[in-house]
Amino acid sequence: MRPAPRVRPVYLAASLAYMGLIFYLSHQPSIGGPLSYWIRLLHSLPGGDKASHFLEYAGLGFLLGKAFNRPLLAVLLSAAYGITDEFHQSFVPGRDAGAPDWFADVLGCCVGAAASRIRLPWETAADSQDRPSLRGETESSSARNSRQTTSER
Question: Among 44, 20, 24, which residue's Cα sits nearest to residue 33?
Fold first, then answer.
């Protein structure tokens, strides 16, 4: 049985703050709001609105992936938040909700969650100890198995 994932409080707090930022940005009307210039600028980039959704949720997938050390959990949580975000946007003047936006959100969270597997320079080996290996074991149990094999020789 796999041990429960260790939650990293700093990344969890950053994830919650980032979700608050997403909520704030989603609440801005596309015309006439304080961020309307930036929204128009993002929409003028290649990919427009979908690119901004992708990048926004790649960040969330990354932070949640780091917080829980479980990329699939990060994708599920980010995708669920994306649904609530699209629902919220349906009530904001000048904004609309749609499945294509949500698909861009999900693609972004998949990429972000995958990127969360990369160990950052300030992270130690102990930080990634609870991550599952490709064989489904945790890295700490894999290390134990290799030590046992070495000592048996």
Answer: 24
